[in-house]
Amino acid sequence: MGFSFRVEDGFFAGYQKLVREDVIPYQKKVLGDELEGVEKSHAIENFKIAAKEREGEFYGMVFQDSDVAKWIEAASYSLQVQYDEKLDQELDELIALIGRAQEPDGYLDTYFTVKEPEHKWQNLCEAHELYCAGHMMEAAAAHFQATGKTTLLDIMKKNADHICSIFGEGKKRGYPGHPEAELALMRLFAVTGEEKYKDMAAFFIRERGAEPNYFVEELKNRDWCVWSRNPINTAYHQCHKPVTEQEEAVGHAVRAVYLYSGMADVARQEKDEKLKTACKRLWNNITQKQMYITGGIGSTVLGEAFTKDYDLPNDTAYAETCASVGLIFFAKRMLMMEKNGNYGDVMERALYNCVLAGMSLDGKKFFYVNPLQVKPGYSGELVTHKHDLPDRPAWFGCACCPPNVARLLMSLSDYIWEEVEDGGETTLYAHLFVGGVYQSEGIKIKTETAYPAEGEIRYLVEEAEKKVKLAIRIPAWSLQTVMAINGKEEPLQVRDGYAYLSGELKAGDRIVLKLDMTPRKVYANLNISEDAGKTALQKGPLVYCFEGVDNGGDLDVLRADRESEITEIVKDDSVLGKVNALQISGKKLEGSAELYSFDRPKETPFTLTAVPYYMWDNRGLNAMKVWIEERG
Amino acid sequence: MGFSFRVEDGFFAGYQKLVREDVIPYQKKVLGDELEGVEKSHAIENFKIAAKEREGEFYGMVFQDSDVAKWIEAASYSLQVQYDEKLDQELDELIALIGRAQEPDGYLDTYFTVKEPEHKWQNLCEAHELYCAGHMMEAAAAHFQATGKTTLLDIMKKNADHICSIFGEGKKRGYPGHPEAELALMRLFAVTGEEKYKDMAAFFIRERGAEPNYFVEELKNRDWCVWSRNPINTAYHQCHKPVTEQEEAVGHAVRAVYLYSGMADVARQEKDEKLKTACKRLWNNITQKQMYITGGIGSTVLGEAFTKDYDLPNDTAYAETCASVGLIFFAKRMLMMEKNGNYGDVMERALYNCVLAGMSLDGKKFFYVNPLQVKPGYSGELVTHKHDLPDRPAWFGCACCPPNVARLLMSLSDYIWEEVEDGGETTLYAHLFVGGVYQSEGIKIKTETAYPAEGEIRYLVEEAEKKVKLAIRIPAWSLQTVMAINGKEEPLQVRDGYAYLSGELKAGDRIVLKLDMTPRKVYANLNISEDAGKTALQKGPLVYCFEGVDNGGDLDVLRADRESEITEIVKDDSVLGKVNALQISGKKLEGSAELYSFDRPKETPFTLTAVPYYMWDNRGLNAMKVWIEERG
Known about the structure:
alpha+beta, seven-stranded antiparallel sheet, 17 helices
């Protein structure tokens, strides 16, 4: 990217510290089976066995290797955020082990090397070989960018070369069962400039959904399976039709957004308008029809999947943390292709709500599933609500979401800023509002802000030795935005959601943006059955929620007054700290003990209190609701 | 029972005609594979093969025989309602075939006779042998009572004797996987007076849930299965603990209420207070914590089961028609043990709402699952809502619910009236309000009523040659009930929900009961998350619902005014006929096309129209809701 950004604010700097000091070391211990009482990972052990340095059997999921890859990626970003010699060495040792586990032809997957060497590349649908390779390619790119070392990059170039030798026109058809290699090969291409990696990614994407269906044919030709010999659900795998013909986001949500991210990369690099159109269509379908207000996507546990437009149940939601991380990947790639504030708005929505809610404030517990409504005794317990835990579980040994959150938070700079060269002109895009110091050749800008607690963001230009213009995303939720340049209010020139500053930046420039942080009631499209007639509260990028602890326990008996104004209070909570809470007037119902009765429940005035959704479930098991019904 | 009651009213007489003329002949053809385009039943063919009159393989479910049994039972009641020589002969022929299919020792189950003779009685948990036997015993009792013929009764006595020779103290332990034999043996006992049948039923009930668990042990001892070798879910089978220790209704709802019905029979006959207490506890749990307003029970499709107290989702409801039929069986047996209007109230609720809704008004289509809310395009289509069809499917070849509805409607008299002799005094109980002619030795009473359209019921005593008192259930929903005897208003003497008339009946007596048919808003217990803050409409025994066709299509945008009065109108509908519809004032919301917006939906006044729930889905595919949110 050619720039660096050091996060220095009261919000994300704390998260990065948590990930650096707690999450990453903890997960390393998990991977190395060093923790008592935590389910065995065996992930590093698998590499040792593959390297023939240990006797033993492969243990774990078919995609166990990817846990190691995601950790390396997160740890590499961590080094970039703050160098740590011990971590650097740990990485070196682990990478050396991976090198020794790689087969002479470049093949790298401990499941198959150790357990089923005769079955390589025979079950792309289930076996996650390309998925694991993809994650390790991402790790390699991150490690190279963070350290300048080519150790892992060399391993993964060799692996990618091997993959290129197996797949392609006139070679093996096929594509990943779980997309990931596509976007990873594009990262490898970005880092190495090797066209063949881009071509390989493009092949996988263009081959997907072609007839006869590869996975259907593959199933006929193999006599083994990882999980199931049932007929292939092609929509689950997003290979029900060619990707350029897909109208709606379907199937497993994480797979979907990983695939669309790869598609966006290829569309951008190859200037493929048809593919770009498909990306936009799928983006629009997700964000205009299938996304929770929290930025959660994939509303059903059954297949962890998209369902139908406007089917967004709150209490049986799936809304996997990883799917929102993937939505952010997709958003970033769409932004790289096309500067439109909508991508940034969605990126921000997913980040500040669903993704951050995925982790407890102390970084020790994680949600995989992010419901918008829970009721203790029912959520997590009913056979239909088993997946919707009302309380974050302690970390699982083998895990997708925690390392995904870790790698996102540690590489956040890449989502905040983008420097675009076009026709000799450089534009610096500020996609997200995070305090810190931006630096690239000849440019240094300091951002100061208490965002998202406050809406003022100050950009202080410390160096501007090259010609560069600034463009800042103006979120759609900011109905009244004010900008002052060097103390003088300037009219906003907003195009597609970005305010483009007219002049070039000069050292000493001070740009002050004031976003409209008025808390507001949000209303859902009435096609969303579960939210029709209800309201949710939002302030800036933060969606709020009502928790039992602040509202007398039971939320089902509460209603919001239709005409109520929102009052903002600063709540000083022993766990949450000083938090901007929102209050609205409402009613509390008190009803009969009968199952059914002719007696209308009594209504008494009640003040409802909401806290930011990302903070929920940090104060013990209790009820939670984002959407609350309005009464007259 | 010693009495007869000929249904003669504008409501149930029509249903009985439909069942007699359409449903019973149609199902006979299904059982005999005489219909093109209907899934093969093979049920009669299985008996022919078992009788060695045909070559062939068993085909169908392990409980396929029970389809034949339920048909015989319904057809027998039909003969009792109206004699039909052809049907009588058809029954004779079918019963003769069954006799020839029976093995010499009395064993009767074509699945095992034809397919797995070596596996008899080895898999009580799954194999439905006792279930099929039970249904055929019920058929035998019904056939004997309807015709006086002992043909099927003799077959089933021989079968019951065989069962008694296999199971019991010092013999084989065990009990039915799907309860049914318990209540059926009690019917056989009632008809024959054979104590051993009662003892056998009591054994099955007392053995259930004893340790070591029979099904768990059985699984260890067999190397075959019908469906699954998974560990036994004892709660699903209601054998997680002895029945007298069970506190809550759990597991498969139909199995549960069939079991509880058998328990009530045994408790009554053996005057077993502990068992009676268990029955009451389970009854109270179901009807006070786990029952839909429609009388539907078993709220989840997963296991067709009870879940937790107050978990009564409307749009993912299971509420199987058969479970409500079983609840009526249970209610009737509780009433036989203890005269309390609550049992009658629940019986009436289930009958007029969930059960009748199970069948289309033309008798041609049936619901197995009875949701309280549907939305076309979602219900029946979403992976989480596949079971909640918004439109009744055409009849399945092999089916539980249609014949269960048929046998209930054709034997309705047994639920309407009960004659109790106690200490030389006879009391005649009127549990339900149905027009027709009651006759027993020395007594003839004519009931005239337009119930449930109207609340007036006239009892005209035509003969009263023996001393008999009358007791009439006064439904809890009738807040203002008036009774006049021979033109003179009499104060009601209500005890436990029954009005006991002081004097003995005399020929010429004319008792006029006026129930309070004021339509009312009903409110659910606020612990029911899905209904809190909502209202439903009820008039007499009828729960109402809002259908899209009467309310502009989309119901999610409608709200009821909290203070609105209910207006009653007579709607003349081309399909429903003249129907008492209910109207309330409310609001219609009109919102933004955005997925989420700060714009509050506009509200415009709207009059909501409701029709009886049992009539829903007779006017084409459309949305439906029983519960509607109130606005101030």
